[in-house]
Amino acid sequence: MNIKALIAKLHLLERQVLPVLDRFSYLSDIARATGLKEVQVMRALQWLQNKKIITLTSEIKEFIELDINGKKYLKDGLPERRLLNALKKGELTIKQATDKAKLTKEELNICLGILRQKAAIFITKNKELVIKLLDQGKKLLEKETIEERFLKKEFPVGIESLKPEEKLAFENLRKRKKILKINKKKIKKCQLTELGKQILESGIEITDIMDRLTPEMLKTGKWREKKFRPYDIAVNVPAIYPGKLQHYRAFLDEVRQKFLSLGFTEMTGPIVETDFWDMDVLYMPQFHSARDIHQAYYIKDPEYGKLDEKLINRVKQAHENGFNTGSKGWQYKFDVKRTHRLLLRTQGTACSARMLASKDLKIPGKYFGINRCFRYDVIDATHLPDFTQIEGIVVEEGLNLRHLFGLLKLIAKEFADAEEVKIVPGYFPFTEPSAELFAKHPELGWIELGGAGIFRPEVTKPLGVNVPVIAWGLGIDRIAMFKLGIKDIRKLYSHDLEFLRKSKLP
Asked: Which of 28, 294, 307, 481 yields a CA-CA distance of 20 to 30 A from 235?
């Protein structure tokens, strides 16, 4: 590396700081040696580190500072000093000594103990307790104690810098209430690299080097007389993290935009649903084990919701006898009270059912929804108890299974960037035929993305729809894992700032 060229690029602050780094390592010491403010020194050190001239490290150190009583005693004197001064003219009763030395009861007890231990006073009892000053006490009046000298130090003081006598004073004062307090601080320390040592050996000149060209220089022509510091475009500068959308939020916005651009209309529904819209209207029998996989969270209060009784009656007939669809239904007694139960939505398909029953439904029509769903589940790299599901329906005369397969492959490729896709037979009470979509993750292997199928007449006819409806419900969380290169589904909702800064957007 060209040392002279590197020196020419140094900022004035760097030129002021660098010459003292062979003698001082700590930020505060460097600031005192250069006469710069600590913030200026820190800025210069960071620039020098970026140029690999120094290395910066942090150390946790303990510092002593004066507490409330410490500041008071520095001004008014320690309680034992005030008591000694009060006894100069002769012995005093406890009450007289307390008043004259302006001591609290706690301070009196402490300083009596300290002075008796030093053989400075003697306490006798006549009618009242009387304090008498001894010869050792008179000697103490003539000199400062180590504790008094310690209080006059320039705080904060590093514990490791204390001399033996100061350590003794520190330990004595530390035992007393609110005289000293210990704080931990992170201290910056720098060390010259081999490159830094070479630069110092070459010599640093603190010259009047300009960092910027001003309008005044251009007007007067003085720029010709100035020496400008060249820009270092190769220096490793600190990373800047501008504001951006959360990575999963950005992905969902992109998914929404793509569906809208394909001519789909977005549909929504409430998070707190009834059993009716979540399962019953989808021809899931109330007694069937297929409901077990939904593992719903039921609401405690209120327990039941309101529904259209005419619509309930048509769905009830579909379950009991097939509702003129050619089916015999499930042939059981439909529980009308149970269908009113409230729960947290377990599947986005509830929104599809609401759309099919809506007056806003258009035939032909294409609809999609991005919906939050909830199911009790064991948390691992690919499962969460609350998840986002993307689901949709296409309503049109003449639709068949090939249309559905083509749509599923398009979704897997477009939204998950999946290279390998497979569609296998599946079972859902509300679709026939039914299928499941899988895509191969580069590290996790084959992952189920969701289910799909053609709605059964027992679902569509009670809702007033007499044309084929193809439907799908996919775990958009898992699709996002493909797109964002994430191995653990929990990272989609991470609060880790470092991870969020480095996460890629779709």
From this structure: 28
